[in-house]
Amino acid sequence: MKNIFLLLSLFCTCSYAIELQKYPLVLESSSGEQVTIINTLDNSQALVKVVGVNSPIDEVVFLTALKPHGSIQAYKYTFDGEQRALVTKEQGYSCCSYTLYLPNSRQAIYLSELKDKRAKGISEDTYAQYISQLEQGIQLKLAKFDRDNAIKQSQIALTDASKELNLQCEKDIATSVNWQALDDKTLQTYAVGAYCAQVANSLAKQCQQSAKFKAKVQQFNQVDCEFSNELKLRHTDSLIKFTTAPKAPNQQQFVDAYFRNL
Hints:
By secondary structure, the chain is an alpha+beta fold. The chain folds into two domains: 25-143, no CATH class; 147-260, no CATH class. It is built from eight helices and twelve strands. The chain has helices at residues 122-136, 138-143, 147-169, 184-189, 192-196, 198-209, 211-217, 251-260, and strands spanning 25-28, 34-39, 45-51, 61-69, 72-79, 82-91, 96-101, 108-113, 174-177, 222-227, 232-235, 239-244. The strands form two sheets. The protein has an eight-stranded antiparallel barrel with strand order 1-2-3-4-5-6-7-8. Strands 9-10-12-11 form a four-stranded mixed sheet. A hairpin with a 2-residue loop joins strand 5 and strand 6. Helix 6 (198-209) crosses helix 7 (211-217) and helix 6 packs across helix 8. The longest helix has 23 residues, at 147-169. This is DUF2884 family protein.
């Protein structure tokens, strides 16, 4: 088979071609996750494939960019609307140490180089798989911001907070959010569920501490939460209106202080 990496590996993704090195770097974790990295000739980019993980990126080949990541470097790709570090590369005494980061997980998976001569044939297979997946739009789909999933995750956080509130206050008080009023940037940038759950968290905590406060809370039926540039908290006989300003400091203290004076 002709070497498609040095002679014919020309595929335009952004009006430029990629030329890949002949042999890959194959890394493996102690629990079996495996990463294949095929650098471009100038080492500015690489095809990266992760296998053996419970993640949407399993067996998907990404064209990543090797960029600074704090004091080290990282192979970065776009997932769910934002650029992320897939594998970090830290220069050591002899060479490098590598760490894998899966999307939607804070776990760092440490990798070591797999010394296997059979890896020589992996580059061409990985490149062919990359082209096939690119034509199917797999990478593009994963790169797009998943608004529905972002809302779902926020709703889970709100539901968990409401369950704790209901348990401690012995009152069914749900938190509602006008999701249509939130643009994609807000949903991408902020943990909306955590911000809007601050009222429920405060009520639950203070009900747990005071039977007198628990009695006061019985008047409320709902919490309405919205995002704005100004932090506000108001209530009527049955409704709590909370406006959270993501850049406002000490929000939980503000909410706690409000309900202590209820």
